[in-house]
Amino acid sequence: MAKLKNISQINNWFENFTEPLIIAGPCSAETEKQVIDTAKQIAAIGKVSVFRSGIWKPRTRPGNFEGIGEVGLKWLQQVKAETGLLTAVEVANAQHLEQAIKADVDILWIGARTTSNPFSVQELADRLKGYDKPIMVKNPINPDVQLWVGALERFHKAGVNMLAAIHRGFYPFEATTLRNIPKWEIPIELKSICHDLPIICDPSHIAGNTEYIPEIAQKAMDLNMNGLMIETHYDPLVALSDMNQQVTPSELNKLLNKLVFRSISAKDEDFTSILETLRDQIDSIDQQMLELLSQRMSVVEDIGKYKSKNDVTILQLRRWEKIMSTRIKLGKKLGLTEDFVKKLLQLVHKESIQRQTEVMNKISSKK
Ligand code: PEP
Ligand code: MN
């Protein structure tokens, strides 16, 4: 980690951009017309420097649109020639990398699934030796800052000096409003490990839905992040991937116009002061705490339904005692006092009983 902290060159390539760096373009390249028209409309906004597009798509299930493949790289060359925008694609293996370099793609990014796998990252890093390509590394699917740093280090060790990170949120194990949990404390920690590393936010993959993109983009700007990557499609309704989270170029324009950019950009004040950083961590943790409490309450309601169906009483003393003793023990291990954990549990339990009573009353009134 110390190694990354000492790299000063990595920031230099970013100085060429008027900050924040705006990257926009479709989740996937689909047709020549879609790519070219979207790129022209994006270029007309005048605030976007880089055109992104997925050419090979990592899909959770086979059979979904897996990307247009190499032919799409020709369309990106056309984008460059006709709009002057730089181009960026995701590469996941050595073959992608070679094809993208051959087609003169300007920036390569590593997807979240690839960053999660050190073997793939090492394979890419080895192939990059000798090339002078900027690489942007998305965070791994799991909130593991070391894995993220590790991927950046593998590229740096291979001689890549033009590095940036992309924050795209982390996989939620329970359903949440957002597609991926932002866990802002993680990119903040990355920044504290590596001061000079530019960090870009991808609000599209955090949000999963266009509705939440503006507030996430604003939050990233308030944290003094170095740029945004926003999925943009000229007709999102017919998009072959991530259709709910893609904005149109005109929506992108409105979104960018509404963003408030913070004025402090002095190098050493980058990414907010220590106090603000800590407050941001608290905000993010509180949000996760409330989301978890809300998930707990919906499980409580399911239990209420089950109890009602099977005529079980709401309060089962033995279970409650077990909850208390195991949580107090865990709390102690985690440095929380018995008194605090007890009070917290009592409060949560009281609300849970109330929820179950409501659910059971509703069911019995229908019986
Ligand atoms: C993408 O940028 O379209 C993409 C697949 O993102 P991620 O790797 O963050 O899921
Ligand atoms: Mn996408």
What order do the helices and strands come in, and which of them pair?
Elements: H1 2-5, H2 9-12, E1 21-25, H3 32-45, E2 50-52, H4 71-83, E3 86-90, H5 94-102, E4 107-110, H6 112-115, H7 118-128, E5 135-138, H8 145-157, E6 163-167, H9 185-193, E7 199-201, H10 203-207, H11 213-222, E8 227-231, H12 249-258, H13 274-309, H14 317-333, H15 338-366
Parallel strand pairs: 1-2, 1-8, 2-3, 3-4, 4-5, 5-6, 6-7, 7-8
Helix pairs in contact: 3-4, 3-12, 7-8, 13-15, 14-15
The structure holds phosphoenolpyruvate and manganese (II) ion.
User: Please, what is the CATH homologous superfamily of the largest domain?
Assistant: Aldolase class I
CATH fold-level label of the largest domain: TIM Barrel
Ligand list: phosphoenolpyruvate, manganese (II) ion
**Strand order of the biggest β-sheet:** 1-2-3-4-5-6-7-8
How many domains? The number is: 2
Radius of gyration, whole Å? 24 Å
Overall mean pLDDT: 89
**Main beta-sheet annotation:** 8 strands, parallel, barrel
Distance between the termini: 63 Å
